[in-house]
Amino acid sequence: MSVLRSRFKQSFSTLGVNFANPGLRRxxxxxxxxxxxxxxxxxxxxxxxxxIGGAPAVGLVGLIRTIPAAVSAPFSSLLSDRYPRERVMxxxxxxxxxxxxxxxxxxxxxxxxxxIFAGAGVMTILGTAIKPAQAAMLPSLASTPEELxxxxxxxxxxxxxxxxxxxxxxxxxxxxxxEAVVFLVAAGGAAFAALxxxxxxxxxxxxxxxxxxGPFLAELSAGYRTIGSExxxxxxxxxxxxxxxxxxxxxxxxxxxxxxxxxxxESGVGLLSAAIGVGGMVGTFVAFGLVTGERLAINFATGLxxxxxxxxLVGVWPEPAVAFxxxxxxxxxxxxxxxSGSTLLQRMVRDEVRARVFGxxxxxxxxxxxxxxxAIPVVIELAGVRAALIVTxxxxxxxxxxxxxxxxxxxPPAPVPEETLDLLRSIPIFAPLPASTVExxxxxxTSVKQPAGAVVxxxxxxxxxxxxxxxxxxxxxxxxxVASTLARGEGFGEIALLRDVPRTATVTAKTDVTLHxxxxxxxxxxxxxxxxxxxxxxxxxxxxxxxxxPEVTRV
Length: 555
Known about the structure:
By secondary structure, the chain is of the alpha+beta class. 75% of the residues lie in helices and 7% in strands. It contains 21 helices and eight strands. The strands form two sheets. It has a four-stranded antiparallel sheet. Strands 2-7-4-5 form a four-stranded antiparallel sheet, with no helix packed on it. The longest helix has 59 residues, at 22-80. The protein is elongated, with a radius of gyration of 26 Å. The relative contact order is 0.11.
């Protein structure tokens, strides 16, 4: 209990720092504005679809919203790994604003239904550019790993608050106005979000990504290949897709349950969704106590089980008061899923492919959303709303239990000691890097111990690692003559890696030494991807080559 209290205290302290960070604060407020408007829009869109064609029409809207987005997600996320992520988000928000205004005008002018449905597809496509960019940008805005964790919990809380206020706003507006007015209110939210994002600036490395391109198909598929190559990522992506499959089903189920099962009327659709949002807000407190621990995968599974059981029990006991209580619990599970899953992935994936991984994941999630939206009207038609609720919950519970063994073995990257982080930050080459990149590099390093007199590497050998001295001293010799002595906090080996030449010197342990070794690929990706770090490396290389003499400089 004292450990849990300590986690809560640390998390809320970090939360205060999180809100004091201007970049994080603006992105969070922009996301809240986006989500409130989006949920109000979805409620109005669902009611409009139901009015003209019942549950199948709501399912059709889900299909239109999901398939184009699933196809576009890899393309839009590639933009976020190649251009400043705040710029991608700004363009997408302006596009959402225009689409919502046009949709509202079409609705007010009694345009054909396909025009409104097409607008829903465009909205989702634009959304695939926002969330991966935001998830990938978050580690660059956060100054510490703890602040990143708190930021993810905050974003989950923002989504929960939006899930409460957005549908409630949509339901209230529908009670006194019509769908076109709700669309315009959502457009106002997009405009406010665009103004906030316009004031966000990320690290200089974001601009460097514009210059680093490779074969188009390889770049486009990098996110999927990264997920496919990591068993842990595959399990998380699969279960998250199941979570969104259920979310797609819930979009239809809430409409059907409010109008057919619980007799709550049109405004009841928004109220049922709001119950999930209120639960998500309360779930924030639970998430703060969980996601600061090391069992993120288990916490992720716990959220899935909570959501599945709560949703299924609505079908078992279809009373309005009970339904509101169970959907409240469902919202708690949602927050735990989002906070623990996002933190886990951000800590596992490198910055240069992070947006594409989240984009690939989003494509899979949207596909799951579409399948859920399409399949559930069939279940409702064959078995009724109650059975559909029970089946939907059981699917999520069953898939989670089947993955229990894999989740129990899964561990996030171990927290890196602050002493190691400080040692890495003391190197001029690494000092300009974002906190998330430094943490990734520190976690990727391996410890190498060498006795006095041992050769670390010889002049003329191929370079495969960068080294950092933790304890002891090493001697650097060029053509048999000692050029320098390096001690704690000094690094070596960067010349061969960045210049793609053989080792220009021999390094020998002067005393017993403990070194940190960083593999070539990780070192090059981090340093070459950040302009200030690359410049610092060039300065170090120039100084060392100059001191070594003209023969080495010419190598």
